Amino acid sequence: MTNSRCTLLIVSKAPVPGQVKTRLAPTISLDDAAELASASLLDTLDAARRTAVTARVVALTGELSAARHGAEIAAVLDDFVVVAQRGDDFARRLVNAHADAAGVAHRPVLQIGMDTPQVTPALLGDAAATLTRPDVDAVFGPATDGGWWALGVSTPDMAEILADITPSRCDTGDRTLRGLVQRGWRVARLPVLSDVDTPGDVRRVAGEVAPDSRFRAVARRLRQCGHHGLG
Predict the structure, then answer these.
(1) Of 57, 62, 68, 96, which residue has the fewest beta carbons closer than 10 angstroms?
(2) Cα 24 off chain centre by
(3) Which one-letter DSSP state was computed for residue 145?
């Protein structure tokens, strides 16, 4: 059954070598890091395409023409509304992406990134359904590194709290959740997930994704090529 009241937003970057997953170096090359990022993005898009929501939006930055598997990603994006990220820093781009996504279907927005390829249509569908409950204003999915992997808000102005929170810190998740709660919004917690930033994350997430996922295939190939730091 289609969830008629939610937009799924994926904030992503074109997987161009040297511009994505650079924290995986020197364990693997920048080209291989981009391969992992591409696999993660494509797996995430596949899950999103099979999630029962009203609209699917991708806020994209970077040049797909220079990205690993850029043509394949572009073909998949035909099933999404694609908007360009805008803003002077990542926090502001997140805020603006929520506003742009809300303008597509005028519905609550559930936002994820491209670093959790283990998400499933069931997990995303449950999060979307929770966000649209009458007793919930927001949903929050914490990440194991102290950040968050999902944020859903009932109205785009609620995402303005992100403008004053520095991303990618060990307290980013706590500060985001505290900002939501302090404003009196009713927040439902989602499961904790690991996103992919470090070699340890690659090992962990490769064990959580579907057996036929692109991410697991790339991680396995890199291990077989001698990148033992990945598992």
Answers:
(1) 62
(2) 18
(3) T
Classified by CATH at the fold level, domain 7-223 comes out as: Spore Coat Polysaccharide Biosynthesis Protein SpsA; Chain A (3.90.550)
Judge contact between 35 and 218, C-beta under 8 A.
yes
> Is residue 2 scored above 80 in pLDDT?
no
CB 151 within 8 A of CB 189: no
Res 1: pLDDT:
44
How far apart, in whole angstroms, are the C-alpha atoms of residue 134 and residue 42?
Answer: 33
pLDDT in tens, 80-136: 999 999 999 999 999 999 999 999 999 999 999 999 999 999 999 999 999 999 999
> pLDDT digit string (tens) for 31-85?
999 999 999 999 999 999 999 999 999 999 999 999 999 999 999 999 999 999 9
Q: Provide the token pair at 217.
A: 């295939």
Q: Where do we find the tokens 């995303």?
A: 124
Tokens for 228, please give them: 């033992």
* Amino acid identity, position 222: L
- Give me the residues paired with residue 153 across strands: 109, 138
DSSP helix/strand/coil, 153: strand
Q: Supply the pTM of this predicted model.
A: 0.95
> How many residues make up the chain in this entry?
231
Nearest-angstrom CA–CA distance, 123 and 47: 9
E strand or H helix that includes residue 141: strand 138-142
